[in-house]
Amino acid sequence: MNWTRPLHHQTPSQERRSMLFGRSKKRGDPLQERIDCLIGADASIQGDLVFTGGLRIDGRITGDVAVARIDAGTLTIGDQGCIEGDVRVSHVIVYGEIRGTVYATGLVDVRPNARIWGDVHYGSLEMQAGALIEGHLIKHRPVGSTQ
C-alpha cells in the first residue's frame, strides 16, 4: 500500500522562488512523490535500516539508515522522529533529530525545530530559521567537477 501526498500546485512566483533556490518541483522527483513506509511514533528499531522509495520516521532508530539505490530515495524525519546513526540518502527532510553524519546527494531540507548533531554532506541545502546543525557542512561535488 502506498501513501501518496496530494500534488500541490504552485503559483508562478512560488515556482520561480523554488527554482531560484535549486529546488525545482519536477514530476517524478522522489522528493515529493510518496511515502512507501512509515515507522510510527511508538516504534523503536535497533539495527541498520535499508529502504527504497519514500520512508517517514516518527519513531526512534538506533543504527544507520540508507537508501538501497542512492538516486531514488527520500527520507522524512517527523517532529518526534530520531535517528542515532549515519544517514545515506538522495533527499532528506528533517523535522526531528539526527545524531550522526548525513550523506545526501540531493536536497537536505532542515525545518524550523530540527536538530542535527553531526556533519552534513549535501547536494543542496535548505535550512529554516530555528533549525540547528552542530557539525560541518560539506557541499557534495559531482564526479568530474573542478570546484
From TrEMBL:
Family classification: Belongs to the bactofilin family.
Protein name: Cell shape determination protein CcmA
Species for this entry: Sphaerotilus microaerophilus
Region of interest (Disordered), residue spans: 1-27
Highest taxon in the source lineage: Bacteria
